[in-house]
Amino acid sequence: MTFSGLETGLICYTHFKQEENIKNYLTNVSRIIDMTYSMGAI
Question: Residue 23's pLDDT is what?
Fold first, then answer.
């Protein structure tokens, strides 16, 4: 594997990880909103 290939793989991996984190974050936020809404706070 060349250095540029390794670099590209690392960038893709990092990007994938960031997307996973964003998805998890949004899921958690929507869960919190659902809980708050069901308790009648909103």
Answer: 93
DSSP for 5-24, written as a single string = HHHHHHHHHHHHHHHHHHHH
Can you give the C-alpha Rg of the chain in angstroms?
18
Residue type, 1: M
2: left (phi over 0), alpha (psi -120 to 50) or beta: beta
Is the torsion defined by CA of 22, 28, 29, 34 positive or negative? positive
pLDDT at 2: 65
Report how far apart, in Å, the C-alpha atoms of 19 and of each of 13, 16, 26, 29, 37 are.
10, 5, 11, 15, 27
Examine the pLDDT at 28 and tell me if it is beyond 90: yes
